[in-house]
Structures
1.
Amino acid sequence: MSLKEQVDITRLPQHIAIIMDGNGRWARKHGKNRIFGHTNGVSSVRETSEGCAELGVKYLTLYAFSTENWNRPITEVSALMTLLLKTIKAELKTLLKNDIRLKVIGDIARLPVGVAKELNEAMARTANNKRMDLVLALNYSGKSEIVRAVKEIAVKVQKGEIAPDAITEEVVSNNLYTAGIPDPELLIRTSGEKRVSNFMLWQLAYAEYFFTDVFWPEFTREDLYKAIIDFQNRERRFGKTSEQLVTK
Ligand code: FPP
């Protein structure tokens, strides 16, 4: 049986989040510069997006640029921005054809004007698509996202729109970038690193984590299937006992 056939499509995670890591090390392994690694990472973005949409995954979130990534050499940052711009332009047709809606989480206003404009346009053009949401985390930081939500809620309290006692988990969720998007059930991180690195700190509370040594540019659909199969073989208890789950 192929790996794809081993995926139980009746028990898919509806939201998969991925920390795409190892572009630089993959490039070094091939005697090339880091930018070569990022460029090749784009084909894995395509593979994974297509693979998820084809299976019926409803949300795919990719960590493409963290707020900490601004600290990289300026040449690498601008190459990443150019790559992003080029990729959005080139892939818009594919997103439309495949009924995929593009979303962004993160502080988009601080991205280069051209990039922000292209992203806003792509989001508007794909806004009515239904098959899958492709969510790009750009200039994203999990802690900043929570701080931003706290500030928004504080303003609502100050205006008397909400009482402090009425602040629930749902209220917090609804003030995050991901408002309206269900939490990821599966987090994948490539390249052998085993950290969350400030990614979706609130949303990953109950996610299963899957770590693979594969560098992002060499991550294929088969690797995606492996992660989903592994996820499906785990027991998700949400704090309950195994016995309680049987009777559920
Ligand atoms: C991590 O590898 C990768 C990134 C910081 C950038 C990811 C970007 C892409 C795959 C291309 C553009 C994306 C889209 C969505 C069009 P690293 O540089 O941290 O690798 P290293 O840990 O080996 O140095």
2.
Amino acid sequence: METAPPSLPGNPRRGPFALRATLVSARADGSFLFEKDGILEVDASGAIASVGPASAYRGAATVSDVRPMWLLPGMIDLHGHLPQFPMTGMNAYGLEVMPWIVDVMSPMERRFDGERSREKSLEYLSLFAASGTTTPVLYGSVDEGATDAAFDTAARHGFRMLLGQCLMDRYRYDGAIPDSEVTERRLRQSEALCLKWNGHDNGRLRYVFTPRFAPSCSREMMRESAALAKKHGAYWQTHLSETPGEMVTIRETFPECSNYLDVYDQAGGLGPRSIFAHCVFLSAGELERMRETGCIVAHCPSNVLNTAGVMDLGRYVDLGLKVGLGSDVGGCADISMFSAISLGWVCQSVRQRLRPEDSVVLSLQRWLELATLSGARALGLDGQIGSLEVGKEADMFLADVPSLRITDGFVDKWVDQLLTLLVFRARPGMVRATWVRGSAVPGPGIFEAPERRFRPHAGGTVTA
Ligand code: GUN
Ligand code: ZN
């Protein structure tokens, strides 16, 4: 039998500290770091001061030896919905997207007001951290108080997050506001939230103007939100080409537009800070327009669970599009990016069997890169986050990978084989500690509370 996983001696909660572990990360030069016995040092500002083999370490920080655990860069989740957390794992099962939103998600989101957000945001953000996700990109509910409270929670507990108030002036679930006022009122609220939170704590929090998608927004809502995002240097996010039924709605509602992307193009919504979730059914012309304008694709493998399909990931990557991964919480089986990776890998593998002529992304090193460095690059944040490299902010997590084995007696020989263990047997609870900018955040340990209630460890660090 293997020994119990070690606790974290020294319990490093903020820099300076150093960890001795197996270091695993994509790197900016295209290589992949797998240092079985490495040391990573974090300085007092929370930046990575050194990374390398333990035998070469010359730093002065106190070293916590946490072998045989693995240290990885924090996952970057390019797409999810904060108010939909309770729906995670309860997939649409054949419902088209519009009835799903109206009948299932809207009642859930309507409850997510300021009070509920104050109650639940710490739990939800902690669940991300407990899954190894350090940068979620999120939609709030339409309630400005809920979005403000979520930002406030993230600010106080040290989480990194990109978030926006969900904008809808059609198929709304906030009936109290008159139709004649809703567009202007929501835009003003979003601008105020952006002014308050965008760039908070040296960019740890960022605002994203968030028109839900074309069917639930007026042309004015899309156009004005895009203009505000540009004016304030903020991000802009929406959904694009998720299901076949949605495409029919778009053709009927926007007859003046040549395709789905053109609806957002005419609103001025395309650009390097524009994040489009799903992108399953796009024409060659739309892909070229996305590439030339630098738009970001948030690929959500959970599409296959929700009447959508399987995005042609290999083609998008070959075309040079900016692609990262999204969980699409709560339209997914699990919030963990390891769940997104394993589902995506299986879908792309089947795709290759059926269409051997297509190029398909399959290496697990490449999938881990998609969930980390590629996401950071897509957001234009790869100077700060996305990999375990010197000078970057120490956004990272410690995973007890050896405990994922069913039994011991296995020889650690091939990196790719060990990565399959991490990706396909990832379990809640394997994440033992998570840091953002070198400071421990709440979350790890959340799955281990005996009564299965939310009970974050004090300070979010590992206990024995
Ligand atoms: N399209 C517009 N809103 C949503 C949503 O909440 N979930 C999904 N999967 N697609 C959407
Ligand atoms: Zn979504």
